[in-house]
Amino acid sequence: MEKKYETINTNKFPVEVDMQFKRQLLPDNSLVLTRYKNGASTQPMIKQTGKTFGGTLLYEVRITPPKEEIEAVIIVCRKSTNHYCVSGFTNKFTKLEHLKSSQEVGEFIKRWFCRTLLDD
Q1: Which of 10, 63, 70, 71 is 20 to 30 A from 35, comparing alpha carbons?
Q2: What are the start-end ranges of the E strands in the chain?
Q3: Max intra-chain CA distance, the chain
Q4: Sign of the CA dihedral 23, 112, 75, 13?
Q5: CA distances from 56 to 24, 59, 67, 83, 98 (A)
Q6: What pTM did the predictor assign?
Q7: DSSP assignment, residue 111?
Q8: CB 5 within 8 A of CB 79
Q9: Alpha-carbon span 52 to 60, nearest angstrom
Q10: Chain centroid, CA 97 distance in Å
């Protein structure tokens, strides 16, 4: 039988967490937060391919969709009333923490995983 975690109240998470992360609630009530890199939009490639019989120029346009690169992933599980397990990683570090409230979870995520003006 699959273990179910307690439901997580995210109302006390800081606004930065809501703005920067995509949420996914898994069937076992754990929460996965994913942040993607802001990739620059790709430029369309326009190439002249020929002319029609009447002299109209023909063009080919190629647009490649931007690739979404994952920058950070966080998993939050609520094991009991006052026990949250948070694990997350970026390309620079991995953090694992046990916290007592959803407010502490939000502050932990904001401190370690949210972008700031000082980030490269």
Answers
A1: 63
A2: 22-25, 31-36, 45-51, 57-62, 70-80, 83-90, 94-99
A3: 76
A4: negative
A5: 50, 10, 35, 70, 68
A6: 0.73
A7: H
A8: yes
A9: 13
A10: 19
Residues 22-53: pLDDT tens digits? Answer: 999 999 999 999 998 875 556 778 888 888 88
The answer to whether 26 and 51 have CB atoms below 8 angstroms apart is: no
Cα gap 16→35, rounded to integer Å: 11
Structure tokens at 71: 């920058």
In degrees and rounded to multiples of 5, residue 34 shows phi and psi of -125, 130
- Cα gap 40→61, rounded to integer Å: 19
In this structure, what token pair is assigned to residue 65? 């969709």
Q: Is 79 helix (H, G, I), strand (E, B) or coil?
A: strand
